[in-house]
């Protein structure tokens, strides 16, 4: 088996027999990840009749890694994702205490995975709070490395918070802090480079997928230099690097204030294709948009660095300890993330087979309990049975590809 390599930014060289590292995940991870692998293997086999194959290489992280090695995120795991470029992961428990931040954040930072990509679409049959969920087809590009998520903050009452306040007060003449003694402080770095690479990726993706509009979502009306900078640099980048596409009408760049955007997505979802936004806005937007089309069990995601080629596809939900071990968890999030992975690798025929199988299942009311209970005449399937159903539909698919 061999490794994926990168030829030039955005161009991967994918061997037909390829090794993909994966993290099983904690809690429901042990239930959803094997189901995802069975579905992916079936789709690849069906699409390429043995000419292509994934060899899954397990790497450890989370509780499983901690129990086996004493480390939540062993070096070998980071090495594997670095070396093989493309991987996939189940959900991980966030260690409590001990100064360890989220393992997901550590993975993103180590590999500089600067795009968090969340495609949002509706599947016929899935209940939605919207009147016209069929109009939802949005692709969120959330900046993944900057903003208030950089973790630069000091707690109220500490010497550091006092020092920070003294500096901005004495050196910079800041007088607007209402209660300096009891204030905590955070720093929100937003850079031109960080903005440019995110907006570039969003524009390229829009063009490659025949999506016309890229909307920059920000709060630049309030945070003029950070979120306002994002808007300004975003427009400048698009006008400089995508001038032809804009001039020919293939690409339209616009912007929305974040609060108005959230309202508009509910009222006029058809107005949006690709969304480029900062880290914190992207967090809120991802969850709202996911809820509009079926919620946490069905929302896929990926963290990508388009320059180095590194990408980790992931279940976007957590370890769901309240339902773990009961064969009721919905594996669709990680399955749809695997679809994104196959598309990223250029194995689009296999990706399409899985998407079609999900469409067939949902439109006939067959789903795991979290979705089936809201479907008129819904039929609840266990996690394993749902996976088997998908495999069977893929195997029986007689459509010309
Ligand atoms: P969670 O996503 O695990 O669960 C929230 C709710 O959604 C629960 O009621 C759960 O049963 C339900 N749910 C989640 N996924 C589902 C699925 N696929 N099918 C059906 N129902 C599903 O969030 P939480 O309870 O806040 O977090 C639990 C643990 O997971 C924590 O340790 C948290 O840090 C971690 N977490 C990890 C990730 C990740 O690895 N990407 C993301 C979020 C939370």
Describe the structure.
This protein is α/β, with parallel strands linked by helices. Helices cover 42% and strands 18% of the residues. It is built from 14 helices and 16 strands. It has helices at 29-48, 63-69, 75-84, 103-110, 159-171, 192-208, 227-241, 243-247, 258-267, 279-292, 332-345, 348-363, 369-372, 383-396; strands spanning 5-8, 11-13, 17-23, 53-58, 86-89, 115-121, 137-143, 153-154, 185-186, 213-218, 252-257, 274-277, 300-304, 311-315, 366-367, 379-380. The chain has a 10-stranded mixed sheet with strand order 4-3-5-14-13-6-7-12-10-11, sandwiched between helices. β3 (17-23), α1 (29-48) and β4 (53-58) form a beta-alpha-beta unit. α12 packs across α14 (383-396). The longest helix is centred in the N-terminal third of the chain and has 20 residues, at 29-48. The model has no long low-confidence stretch (mean pLDDT 94). The site of nicotinamide-adenine-dinucleotide (NAD) has 19 residues, from loops.
Structure in a nutshell:
This protein is α/β, with parallel strands linked by helices.
* SSE ordering: EEEHEHHEHEEEHEHEHHEHEHEEHHEHEH
Q: Main beta sheet, described?
A: 10 strands, mixed
The molecules bound to the chains, other than polymers, are: nicotinamide-adenine-dinucleotide
Using DSSP, what is the number of strands? 16
Structural class: alpha/beta
Low-confidence blocks of residues: none
* Order of adjacent strands in the largest pleated sheet: 4-3-5-14-13-6-7-12-10-11
How many helices? The count is 14
- Beta fraction: 15-25%
Radius of gyration: 22 Å
**Terminal Cα span:** 26 Å
**Portion of residues in helices?**
40-55%
